[in-house]
Design a protein that fits this description.
Layout: H1 2-15, H2 18-35, H3 38-58, H4 62-74, H5 78-105
Length: about 110
Amino acid sequence: AAPAWREAYVAAHASRDWPGMLAVGDAAVRAGRATGAADVFEPRARRAYRTALLRAHRQGSRDGVLAAGEAFGRLGDHDVERMARAEAAKLAIRAEAVARRRAGAL
């Protein structure tokens, strides 16, 4: 499981998008459950989810920030989940403000 996960991680890391890193984190959680090595794979999942969260935020993706936050919640990290919800709300407000400015410029 570890070599396949590492290959997926490298590919997702190179892609620079958040969905790939989120999928890699989910795969790490599944691998940990399947192998009974959650203690090995959970930190890998956290790293992938953290990267997904940062990428989503940088890309202004409300959905990505929410998805990464929910992933942390599934790991029991509800503080990060709450923070992600708050950041997603801020992203939505910013996007709405930009849309209004654009509409007003027409």
